[in-house]
Amino acid sequence: MKRVLAFAGSNSSSSINVQLANYVLNHCSGADKKMLLLTDYNLPMYNIDIEQSSGIPIDINLLKAEISRADGVIIAVNEHNGMVSAFFKNIIDWLSRADRNFLEDKKVLLISTSPGARGGSSALEYTEKTLPRFGANVVERFSFPSFQQHFNVDAQEITDPLLQMGIQEVIASFLNELEG
Question: Got a GO cellular component term for this one (predicted)?
Fold first, then answer.
């Protein structure tokens, strides 16, 4: 059974990207699944002086170990002002300092959502171009527009049939890549 790890790049307690990541992970049938909250990891803002004086934070090594145990990784990319959040960028900075190829041989499904019609697509594009530098094989991506209009939080379901079909196809393709 393939092991799938999911997390979102948001540090918001009400993150819509965490909700979307949970939804996608829950629909990865036949996989051993684990959801991480990056806010559970205590990390300073990356700084070469901190790295040289204190080394790599233990929480980064713990996160890197979780990633290394996974066959596939689902990353929900949040967007702040058309870019990835500083919180998520900080996590990537620390992980890449601990191991430049921290995503080596990992099949990655990138997803994003936002309240707006673009669904975090700018941050998603940036992340899709950046993660291969760290060994990732981005096999699928999905931008989910206008989250509040198309997702029922109480029922944990997508309300738009086309978006539902699209995300199911992306999940199926991702799982197929893991088996291949």
Answer: cytosol
pLDDT tens digits, one per residue of 64-75: 999 999 999 999
Question: Encoding tokens for residue 175?
Answer: 């799982």
Packing angle of the helix pair 58-69, 86-98 (nearest 10 deg): 80
- Please name the residue that has the structure tokens 């899709």: 128
What gap in Å lies between CA 114 and CA 116, rounded to an integer?
5
DSSP string computed for 14-61: T-HHHHHHHHHHHT-TTSEEEE--GGGS--PPP-HHHHHHH-S-HHHH
Q: pLDDT tens for residues 73-115?
A: 999 999 999 999 999 999 999 999 999 999 999 999 999 999 9
Give the separation between CA 62 and CA 38, rounded to whole angstroms. Answer: 11
Pick the CATH number of 3-179 from 3.40.50.360, 3.40.50.2300, 3.40.50.720, 3.90.1150.200: 3.40.50.360
Dmax over CA atoms of the chain, in Å, equals 53
